[in-house]
Write a structure and sequence with these properties.
Length: 105
């Protein structure tokens, strides 16, 4: 089966990171750890990765980066407690616990 997506790590610097002309040609998905999912076998995606000095990662490498970030966010959420607060009050105060993320091929 051919890969549908490729992954890279690139830090979003803000304006110009993704140009409107690029977003009309490429479907971008961002994940924790500055991981970006773009279409595989797509010349526009490859040009964008080069433009942003992205480092291409395998799906497993990208998954490991995302897992580290999600685990850290979950640990921070778990540790953010107020004495006497119910679970519902905690969720209202800081939102839901970060969920696990599974990357797709």
């Amino acid at each position: 089966m051919a890969k549908t997506y490729q992954y890279c790590v690139a830090e979003n610097w803000g304006k110009g990171f993704i140009e409107p002309s690029e977003s009309s040609k490429i479907k971008f998905v961002s994940y924790p750890g500055n991981v970006w999912q773009v279409p595989a076998h797509n010349k526009y995606a490859n040009l964008w990765i080069a433009k942003v000095a992205g480092v291409v990662k395998t799906k497993d490498e990208a998954q490991a980066i995302v897992d580290v970030e999600v685990t850290a966010a979950q640990s921070a959420w778990d540790a953010n407690n107020v004495e006497g607060e119910t679970a519902e009050q905690k969720i209202e105060r800081i939102g839901n616990r970060p969920a696990d993320i599974t990357l797709t091929e």
